[in-house]
Amino acid sequence: MMSWLRTRTLLKRNGVLGINRRNAQYMLPYNPRSAYPLVDDKTLTKQLALKAGVAVPALYGVIDIQQQVRTLPRLLAQYTDFVVKPARGSQGDGIIVVTGRAHDRYVCADGSHLDGHDMGFHVSNILSGIYSLGGQADKALIEYRVHFDPVFEAVTYRGVPDVRIIVFRGVPVMAMVRLPTRVSGGKANLHQGAVGTGVDMATGRTLTAVCRGAIVTEHPDTGNPVSGIQIPHWDTLIDLAARSYELTGLGYQGIDIVLDRDQGPLMLELNARPGLAIQIANQAGLRTRLEKVERALPGLRTVAERIAFAREQFAHVGPIEGATSARARGSAGNEDSDRP
Amino acid sequence: MRRAHLFVLSGLLAAIGCGFFLYKLFALGFPLQPEQRTDVWRVEVRLQFEAAGGPVKASLFLPHGTHDVVVVDQSFVSPGYGIVTEPQPGRGIRAVYSIREAQGMQAVYYRAVVQPARLKDAVSRDPAPAVQPSPLEGAERVAAESVVAAARQRSSDAATFASLIVEQLREPPKGREAAFLLGPQPTSRRIAVTAVQLIRFGGVPARMANGIVLAPERRDAQFAHWVEFHADGRWRPLYINDADRAAPHQLLPWWRGNMPFAELTGGALLKHDISTSRSYELATQAALNQQRALERKLVEFSLFGLPLQTQALFRTLLVIPVGILLLAILRNVVGFKTFGTFMPVLIALAFRQTGLAWGVLFFCIVVALGLAVRFYLERLKLLLVPRLAAVVIVVILIIAMLSVLSFKLGLDRGLSLGLFPIVIMTMTIERMTLVWEERGAREALEQAAGSIAVGALCYLVMNLRMVEHLFFVFPELLLTVLAVTLLLGRYSGYRLTELFRFRVLAR
Known about the structure:
The complex is a heterodimer of chains A (340) and B (507).
Chain A: H1 2-13, H2 19-30, H3 36-40, H4 42-52, E1 59-63, H5 72-77, E2 82-86, E3 96-102, E4 105-108, E5 113-114, H6 116-127, E6 140-143, E7 162-168, E8 171-179, E9 195-199, E10 206-211, E11 214-216, H7 234-248, E12 252-260, E13 264-271, H8 278-282, H9 286-296, H10 303-313, H11 326-333
Antiparallel strand pairs in A: 1-6, 2-3, 2-6, 3-4, 4-5, 7-8, 7-12, 8-9, 9-10, 10-11, 12-13
Helix pairs in contact in A: 7-10
Chain B: H1 2-27, E1 37-52, E2 56-62, E3 69-77, E4 82-88, E5 92-99, E6 103-116, H2 138-154, H3 158-170, H4 177-182, H5 188-201, E7 206-213, E8 223-231, E9 234-238, H6 242-246, E10 251-256, E11 262-265, E12 267-282, H7 283-289, H8 293-300, H9 308-317, H10 320-334, H11 343-354, H12 356-380, H13 384-408, H14 422-439, H15 441-462, H16 465-473, H17 477-488, H18 496-501
Antiparallel strand pairs in B: 1-6, 1-12, 2-5, 2-11, 3-6, 4-5, 7-8, 7-10, 8-9
């Protein structure tokens, strides 16, 4: 009980944002209900982005109704690799990444093979709303598969690494890079075991890395160091993030960006309920930063001013924890297996 | 601003809820404990007489609760007789049984249900009578003057005077005036009559009161007599028997004055016998029985005004908000993960039918078997709705089988299993497979365990007899629950599980 109270005090002092406060103080007041469908339906998000000139993965096709599932093979025949995802999916559920073909079968990013029936069944499941929030009827999107930038190749186990940036009223406040691992099944979700690294908002270099709540220095599958990597096109990324506010009008949102080898940063999706794990990856509390933005808001009128504010205020100071400390490496790496 | 609004609203709701609760608790006497019982007495009077063949008119006094007991219900059983009740100010209420023609032995009945009074209704409603000239003459008058003078000298006011007179008559010194007035071997009625005469003689209004002692299972109850005198604007009792004095709440006052209990014209051989019996009744019912007119309206428009079957439904319905409040706390303050928002409360409702241990067991069996079937169906690549339908059918089959099986094994608990919310179970199975596939077995089992744990906790709270009783008898407490729930809606502190989740940031 005492240690709980102590933890609570420390978390409060460090400005860690809890889910209740995120909902009550940031999402409810700043995210108008009417704007949710814009981000919950990825086809709408895509349309908005295209209208505003924001780069997104190209859309190959949309399956709206069950009858169209029959036309799926014809549609897919044009492409060797593509992604099938539900328009209203959450947390990366229901996404199939096809990387190629072998004897009439689709080869998926996780190494499994699917035949035409399996693919049709998966799309039917998406349409019936299995992956959507609240189980409403859904649409299936077929879109360009991102050929990710080699920068993260050494620290990714299958799947697509992405950059998540939390944007509060147009000011990018915190960012992290999510690196899929074998445990996470190629998904870039921290709670499934992906590695998350904090990002220095000023420079776009990765900071401390966290996997399953513990600080790590290397990617668990590839063994390569994950801290201190420079994210390419950081200026574009932070600009994309700052502009996403005008796109939807959501005061508190998360933007997921992937880095394509050929096309540069592409906006994957927007999230009106971004998770709080980003704080663990950054070893920093969101609340402190959000309150800073709230105070400075009257002086931040243009996109450029917001970006400048973010780069100046949320720059990382001091050494990167974990990357340089051998002690941290020893203790954090063995946390799960260490039995006294 | 928004915060202040919320606090005012919650405060108001809580105040209204608690206010009504306290009013009903203290002013209306609704019981706080579910098992509180109260004595209820049934008094039956049988009047027997031989009718002469012509018109018959039999009258008797009716019990007239004033001190510590009240008559909550009364009925007259008398085939063919007309009944008129007439209040006689200062004496009591008289019922008159009348018939145009009657022959032979007749029996008429009067029954009353009597309870200890909640509202202390003093005797003061009767006005003080004018002091009448004393009927005492000659030697008796001289003796009375002597007793009264002695008592007056030793007393300070009407109350002490009256009690001194009664004391003297209760234990009269041999050969003195008091003994002379009472005569040999005085009955308690004789003492009461004499005491009334003497107190009146001393200038204090007095009267005799007649009643019965409420005793469990008494077949032939006798009337007890005591004295009432008027002082300070109200009538006060003075008991003659020690037993009556010790337990006045056991005395049911019947009528005042020294008129006979029953009178008869048109017949003969009048006799009466009175029996009393005691039964217990739930204090709630007892409280409901003795409302005043306005309060009665309140009760009529409460849940007690509903038919019994509907009441039983509401007993269950009204504890759901308690479960929901608990669920909200467990989810938002503790941070439990559950399937669906309110499913654990529905699981808890199902547990009410089966009991906790069996409920958890059956739940696990049904979900586990359902999951197995669902995984098998997964291979057949069925569409969502038919697959859900198939799972529902299988779940019903599993439940039917479990019921038969547990019945054959002699576990009658299995029979109540059918009341399990089948559709809820199916959705649980469906959600669980999805989570299982997408997030892994660990997350799925975590959420399942969370749902069962929250369901069990809700069950434990919702199934407390105290909780069920409180919310049924005092449904206004739901306003307080609502107030707490509203406040919880603005709780922005950490969840307990977050303390663990973000522990690396606590440096």
